[in-house]
Amino acid sequence: MLQINQFISSLYISNNEIKGVVDGTEWLLAYTNYWIGTNGGLTQSNQIALTYAFSNIPLLFNQYNGTSYEPDAINNFKFSSFQFLLFHGEFLSKLDPLTQKSILDEITSLEKIELINNAVNFMNENPSATFENTKNKLIAEAIEDEIDDSKLDPCTKGVLDKLKKLNQNDIASIFEKFGIPENGTYKIQMVMGTPNNSAAIADTKWLSKNNYLITIRETYIKGTDNNQKPPTDIAVAAIIIHELIHAHFFALFDDFHNNGNNCAYDNYDCLYEKYVTKTYIGTIDAQHAQMFDNYVPKIAAILQEFKPGLSLQFYEDIAMSTMYGLQYFNDKYPKNSPDRNRIENNRNAEDSNAPRGAATPKGSPCN
Amino acid sequence: MKTIISLICSILLISCSTSKMEKNVVNELLKNQLIKLPYIKVVMKESLQTLVSLEYYEKAYQDKNIRLGDMIRIRPESNPPFTWPIDSLEITKLKEKHKKDTISQLWRKNNFQGLKLKLANARAIKNFKSHLSKRYFGDEGIAISKPIITSDKEFVLIFFKTFTLGKYSNHPMQKAILMQNKEGSWRIKEIYDDPNIIY
Fold first, then answer.
1. Domain ranges across chain A
2. A227 contacts B129? CB cut-off 8 A
3. Nearest CA-CA distance, residue B123 and chain A, Å
């Protein structure tokens, strides 16, 4: 016991900042003793972890400042940060200083502690994984998990679930590939209902900061309007992907304007010009221009994994068909051109689950 | 987008022109713009509610000082700085003038003389099995409001929606347009839409 007290005392007096934090945190020494007692005593590993934890608590204990935490939450934040440092201290101390800094800089809220804890656990089990890649992967998966599908019909929900479970190109990869929002606490709800415009098949709404609603037209999904047949799962998947990219763009908007991420629009030229330099000029809106620039091959790749075994041309056509009606589309595929006819026929066949021109439906109806 | 706006301008100015000056403008626009519009084939017979264009403008005007990032209901499409040629007094005056203007006017063929556009009623447009929908399947259509002309006759507000024949539209538009009379020629001054909804 004397050895433990001496060790803790040496950490306590090693630095005035540490001393200040310990003096101002009444549970800290008691918990440290408890932790040593329940984790095998003052082993060499635990000494490294304790040294790492105490050295970094002055930094971490103040990193909640961007939140609006009440005193109880602040205390929870400090306690969880300290646990994180103790649990991962030995592992973190072996990483290069830049990576260590990157990891510790992310500890800014209770949600972030949970996320970074998972990331470090993953890195511990996968030595080749880098922190940035791991973090991005986990954030993307967290956003994907946040999609509220409780008000979706079984058909659309089934398509969404299948998209989520794809191995290489699932929905999360949309977020991962083109950048990760700074703040992972978005709310994305997807419902079957009536879009704002009476002619629209679906829409995405920015309801409030970090809060988005995707609406897919009920009569389209059910095929009840005008005696249409329900669409195939490929058509539904294309719509879901398209709208989720819009939600992602809204998230980038919030990151830049509301979540303090000045780099949110890096690699998104159209959105950057629209919302930052305010110089965007185009024949279509900035979001769709960005989608044209970056996402059509990605949508095609997701569809290919969603329903494999079809021609590459078919996936590209369905991906491009989500841009139908935009000026860019009209300029690239003039009316009555062979390419336009093929794209229209392929998409219309999936929308109506019936042959259109030379195209037959390739997907499966789910209603 | 520009071609659609141009078409709207043409239609607007044909439909609302009661004065000789406006008719001249319409003819000018028809000659210059119609040839660029291969995708719009159908115009809805019924006009949209007149006041919607003014309501769009008013919301944008009321929200003009809201920080980007907070809720802005309607926003100009162009880049700032924005100009606001219709002030709150004029908005109130125009609202009063058009408050009873709720009857959906039916456009007539002679409103669109010289344009190769099919006039069709809303019921046929909305029925995907109608003869119209089958004939024009995949083509674009447009519905427009009656124009609102400012007291000084210098500006016009109009509202429009686009749709696809025979199927739901991937990218319908619904926007208000402000046009300005410059030396007898009508030019688009600004376009307004809801920045919180995308299709």
1. 2-129, 148-352
2. yes
3. 11
Spatial CB neighbours of B44, under 8 Å, sequence gap ≥ 6: B107, B120, B121, B122, B125, B141, B142, B143, B144
- Residue of A197, A227, A344 lying closest to B199 (CB–CB): A197
The amino acid that residue A93 corresponds to is S
User: What is the nearest CA distance from B10 to chain A, expressed in angstroms?
Assistant: 19
- How far apart are alpha carbons A264 and A180 in whole angstroms? 8
- Give the percent of chain B with pLDDT over 90: 47
The pLDDT value recorded for residue A199 is 92
B128: nearest CB among A228, A278, A335 = A228
Q: Interior CA angle at A258 toward A257 and A260, to 5°?
A: 85
Question: What integer pLDDT is reported at residue B143 of this predicted model?
Answer: 87
Helical spans, DSSP H, in B42-168? 51-62, 88-98, 122-126, 131-135
Contact (CB, 8 A) for A320 and A184: no
The tokens for A255 are 């990151």
- As a whole number of angstroms, the distance between CA A51 and CA A11 comes to 7
Cα–Cα distance for residue pair B86/B97, rounded to 1 Å: 15
Q: Which residues contact B146 (CB under 8 A, 6 or more apart)?
A: B15, B16, B47, B50, B101, B105, B158
Distance from CA of A38 to the nearest CA of B (A): 48
Q: What is the ipTM of this complex?
A: 0.87
The whole-angstrom separation of Cα B193 and Cα A353 is: 34
Q: For strand A187-193 and strand A211-217, is the pairing parallel, antiparallel, or unpaired?
A: parallel
> Across-strand partners of B176?
B159, B192
pLDDT at A181: 63
**pLDDT tens digits, one per residue of B108-166:** 777 666 677 899 999 999 998 899 999 998 888 888 888 888 999 899 888 889 899 99
In one-letter notation, the amino acid at residue A96 is D
Tens-place pLDDT, residues A198-231: 999 999 999 999 999 999 999 999 987 666 789 9
The pTM of the full predicted model, rounded to 2 decimals, is 0.81
* Lowest-confidence region among A34-43, A173-182, A284-293, B106-115: A173-182
Closest-CA residue in chain A for B172? A200
